[in-house]
Amino acid sequence: MRITRTAVGRSRRAAVLVTTGLTAPALLLTGCGSGSDSSGSKGPDENGNVTLIVADYGQFGYKEAGLFEKYHELHPNITVKEDVTTDEKVYYPKLPQQLNAGSGLADVQGIEVGRIKEIVDTQADAFVDLGDAIDVGDWVSWKEKQATTPDGAVIGAGTDIGPMSLCYNTELFGKAGLPTDRAKVAERVAGGWKDYLQLGEEYRKKAPEGTFFMDSASAMFNAVVSSSAEQYYDEGGKPVYKDSPSVEQGWNLAAEAASKKLTQGLAQFSDPWVAALRKGTVATVACPAWMAGQISANAGEANKGRWDITTAPGSTAANWGGSFLAVPKQGKNIDEATELVKWLTAPEQQAAVFKAIGVFPSNARAYELPEVKDARLPYFNDAPIGRIYADEAKSIPEAVLGPKDGVIKDTISTQINNMEQRGTGPDDAWKAATDAIDKALG
């Protein structure tokens, strides 16, 4: 990779939003499991009643939207329980182990987009083909392709996606002499992430003491890379992150942000990051749909109305995040689990989850439902998020996924944090990242 020479002195799913029409705020999930007795699938009891276990990570929003209770009302002999692991990085390593052991799996398993390619390549035969149960034509065009095997089996039903926006603190913008209107902010960054950094330099000149233009250069890096079709692998399955134009662009922008002290250098979802949102020291955050919930939950009521949302920098749409529900063949209740997955990922249920916690639907039919298309966020000055995210979702490029996307992204993000926090030079940080990734890839 050609790195610009610049001198440089946790799970995405925990989200809470309150959209227009929601009667009660959803709760941020910070603890462990939701109370299921076991994550393993068990067959019907002596009365024919079935308990379906859904194993997932962070917050999928089903309990918050009341969907498990509603499903029980529709199917009185079926009770749905959720087995939750807060951190996806803790959740995922257990999944291949359980698949190989042939035991311990739930009736339904969540799979994050950064892992789905590895599962498709190495464990597809362990999961039920959902192609006959769900209408893949309902999803945004690229979503189900991510969970489809070469012979056409669909091993995961899409839950959500992460269309990109930009969240910004209007109070800090105003104090720094920057525009606060979302349309005017969008104009200032319309040329792309380079414009975003230029706006950051403007902010720094008059920034309120102790504040920073962005929370994390690694977040910007992920946003930049997410707008490209080719990211860490090519279509032939070869790792190309060392020569990827999108990785190069993202890395150089991150190095520039670190060198110009535009970033507070906070690892997202860490305690210092949460504290910065609460104290109001961060002016902007790269905002996939689920991120707005993180901001509102952690910044708290004291900062309500001080934030807004506008379109992401540049003209190229981006997606960061998203998950799938899969049904292991080991399960004792495969037919019932398949029907549950079909129902949970239908447009009406995805719209209900969006209304509850702001996780944006991957089912495009949900975009025309009033819960989505008319959605606004009171916390963010009534930002019309339904329109912003739906417009973005329709033009997101189909990304090439690789089996170790998550590992590569996490490793690079760690080294970007080192540039911000420790003053590591870009060349040294890049070498550390590539050495670690090469080792992980074997």
What can you tell me about this protein's structure?
- With 442 residues, the protein is of the alpha/beta class.
- It folds into two domains: 50-161 and 321-390, D-Maltodextrin-Binding Protein, domain 2 (3-Layer(aba) Sandwich); 163-319 and 398-441, 3-Layer(aba) Sandwich (D-Maltodextrin-Binding Protein, domain 2).
- Helix content is 39%, strand content 13%.
- The protein is built from 16 helices and nine strands.
- It has helices at residues 67-74, 88-101, 113-123, 170-175, 182-188, 193-206, 217-225, 245-259, 271-279, 291-299, 334-344, 347-357, 370-373, 385-393, 405-422, 426-441; strands spanning 50-57, 78-85, 108-112, 157-169, 212-214, 282-288, 307-311, 319-326, 360-361.
- Strands 1, 2, 3, 4, 5, 6, 7, 8 and 9 form a nine-stranded mixed beta sheet that branches.
- Helix 7 packs antiparallel against helix 15 and helix 15 (405-422) runs antiparallel to helix 16.
- It starts with 49 loop residues before the first strand and ends with a helix.
Features of this protein?
D-Maltodextrin-Binding Protein, domain 2; nine-stranded mixed sheet; 2 domains; alpha/beta; 442 residues; 13% strand; globular; 9 strands; disordered N terminus
* Spatial extent as radius of gyration: 21 Å
Distinct helical segment count: 16
- Proportion of strand residues: 5-15%
Assigned CATH architecture of the largest domain = 3-Layer(aba) Sandwich
Order of helices and strands: EHEHEHEHHHEHHHEHEEHHEHHHH
Ranges with pLDDT <50 over ≥5 residues?
2-37
Main sheet makeup: 9 strands, mixed
What is the number of beta strands?
Answer: 9
CATH topology of the largest domain, by name, is D-Maltodextrin-Binding Protein, domain 2
Binned, the helix content reads 25-40%
Arithmetic mean pLDDT:
89
